[in-house]
Amino acid sequence: MPYVSSRPSGGLGRLGRLGRLGRLGRLGRLLLRLSMPLLALAATPAFSQNWPAQPIRLIVPFAPGGAVDQTARTISNALGKQLGQTIVIENKPGASGSLGATDLSRAKPDGYTLMLALDSQAVNHYTVRNLPFDTFKSFDYLSLLVTTPQVLVTNNDVPAKDLEQLVTYLKAHPNTSYGSAGTASAGHVNSAQLSIARQLSTQHIPYKGAGPLLTDLLGGHIQYAFAGLSVMLPHIQAGKIRAIAVSSPKRSAMLPNVPTMSETIPGFEYPTWIGLVAPKGLPADVREKILAATRTVMRDPEVAKRFADNAFDIVNNSPEAFAARVKQDSDVMADLVRRKVIVAE
């Protein structure tokens, strides 16, 4: 009968081997837990390198026909070509652009949902109740793309050819109504500032964008408005509405005979701006891809000509400069709200 040693081979019995395996198992689990953050970091570049792998949704938080919609349709094809994916425009009007901004704030910060914000984005937290987002913390402000002068226009039934004639008429008709592209939009701010400067008591009617506003202005349902020149210009040139003044620092090349507001009321300047915004937390390299593609598009001669023909001025500034402009406009609105010239909806 062969000899069988009572000592385990190699110094380990069954229990010893199990104990060793258990220690190795615990060590393996510990190493796995320690390596998970590294694995996550390693996975991020792979995701970003493949971005974009599907169409990109571009929210326009106003009705078709306004300056934001014009901007989206001017850049979408060129931006899609730069990124190698289709840009799908989605109009989502309401609450001065805050319905679209709410949608954006709830989207994944993966680069597949972007938005074009109007100037009202900077001030809605003062004028729209119960916003489900934080204006300064819920978004990545990527670039202020363009500005367009605000133009003060009247329908042709208003017997005024210049600003002082209009003020005289409005004081004699205190129930006159004016429109804006939405509460707290640049048009509303400009009209409120005119009311302060000239002690007017006219009635504000907010719309879901400049397109519906224009329809009612042409139809005689409102008498005057400040609105983006890009939308109003064809109708001014056709003689359907009358341009009184522009709220830009200098006269517009498109309307050289129309004075600035500051020629009559010094310091009166508040143009419309439109900028590209994303949900907060974009991966850094996705963010850089979007910024690089946007810079290329805004420098494209064909895109630049389309903007110029529609009275837009290209800015395309940095994220830091854009965020600073949002804060600046927020401070202007804070003063108007404090003085109860503009009130919450």
Automatic annotation (TrEMBL):
CDD domains (alphabetical): PBP2_Bug_TTT
Domain of life: Bacteria
Similarity field: Belongs to the UPF0065 (bug) family.
Protein name according to UniProt: Tripartite tricarboxylate transporter substrate binding protein
Source species taxonomy: Bacteria, Pseudomonadati, Pseudomonadota, Betaproteobacteria, Burkholderiales
